[in-house]
Amino acid sequence: MSLGGDWDPGSVTGFDDDVRAEGEPEREFHAGVAARLPRKSVSGGALVRDTAGLVLLLRPTYKPTLEIPGGVAEAGESPLAACRREVKEELGLALPIGRALVVDWIPVHGPWPDQLAFVFDGGVLDAATVARMVPDPVEVAGVEFLTLAAATDRLRPSMARRLAAAVVAAEAGETVYAEFGRPV
């Protein structure tokens, strides 16, 4: 069985059967060990471009730096499902989110736990699709299509590195593993 770039466990017939086939979770050898394991947050964002190759960036209402569409996964939600949900919420579009471009580990930073940030291919939007975009006014103050060079001083440095890796991965047909935006 091939698990190509279009594989989505939520849309594959039999996914629930696969989960049931795993059987009961193994019992803890020592009670309470599972509760003491560290927790990471997981996010899914989309690299979305226009026909000129410019990157879609959001001006969030809740932070000073630009972001890509996407967000943190809810409990029990995959990074891909989180990306699709957040893109629809933030842009008002159900985009065909494609393969993973970057998996990036982000270290603990202030009050924020470490995180695995996935960047998926959000595709290329034509002018008609851009015109149908309805940004969520609660979360999105505006959207811009920019080159990464033009956006660098408005992005966190790690996001600028992550997006640069995502653009390279999209062009090369690869998936990149990075740590704090630096491909390893």
TrEMBL record:
Q: Does the keyword Ligase apply?
A: no
Give start and end of each Nudix hydrolase domain.
38-169
Report the Pfam families cross-referenced here.
NUDIX (PF00293)
Q: Does the keyword Cytoplasm apply?
A: no
CDD domains linked: NUDIX_Hydrolase
For the region Disordered, give the residue spans: 1-24
Any one GO MF annotation of this record = hydrolase activity
Which SUPFAM superfamilies does UniProt cross-reference here? Nudix (SSF55811)
Sorted keywords for this record are: Hydrolase, Magnesium
Q: Which domain of life is it from?
A: Bacteria
Q: Which cofactor does it need?
A: Mg(2+)
Identification of the protein by name: ADP-ribose pyrophosphatase YjhB, NUDIX family
- The source organism is Jiangella alba
